[in-house]
Automatic annotation (TrEMBL):
Organism ancestry: Eukaryota, Metazoa, Spiralia, Lophotrochozoa, Mollusca
GO biological process, one term: one-carbon metabolic process
Subcellular location: Secreted
Stretches assigned to the Alpha-carbonic anhydrase domain: 1-109
Keyword annotations of the record: Secreted
Protein name (database record): Alpha-carbonic anhydrase domain-containing protein
Length: 109
């Protein structure tokens, strides 16, 4: 998620304002192998189990969570998925999934 720094001073302002936020979304589906990048995130889910909790992950290129090809995507103006659901989001959805293992799908954190 990123906010429009050309129009707004901060995320708080952007999330309630037109064309305020951009969200890049990737679908996950099951495959044969563990996904190492997803595993890095998944191992920390238990730390962020309460509102406003956070954790740092160093040396984690977000590109590792994208499919090999990002040539095709759809984009549309939509809303946030959290209460408020304001229509301030430019969604970018990559049309190829990334794969995680069945074990990762069922992992308890
Ligand atoms: C965000 O920017 C707005 C407009 O400049 C300002 O009024 C507000 O205090 C800022 N909020 C934060 C959390 O910095």
């Amino acid at each position: 998620m990123a906010y429009n720094t050309e129009l707004y001073a901060n995320y708080t302002e952007a999330q309630v304002s037109p064309r305020g936020i951009a969200i890049l979304a990737v679908f996950l589906t099951t495959g044969e192998h563990d996904n190492a990048a997803f595993k890095t995130l998944q191992e920390r889910f238990f730390i962020i189990d309460k509102p406003d909790s956070c954790t740092d992950i160093e040396n984690f290129p977000l590109a590792d969570l994208l499919p090999e090809s990002t040539d095709h995507f759809i984009t549309y103006s939509g809303s946030l998925t959290q209460p408020g659901c304001r229509e301030t989001v430019q969604w970018v959805i990559i049309n190829k999934p990334i794969y995680i293992s069945h074990q990762q799908v069922h992992m308890r954190t």
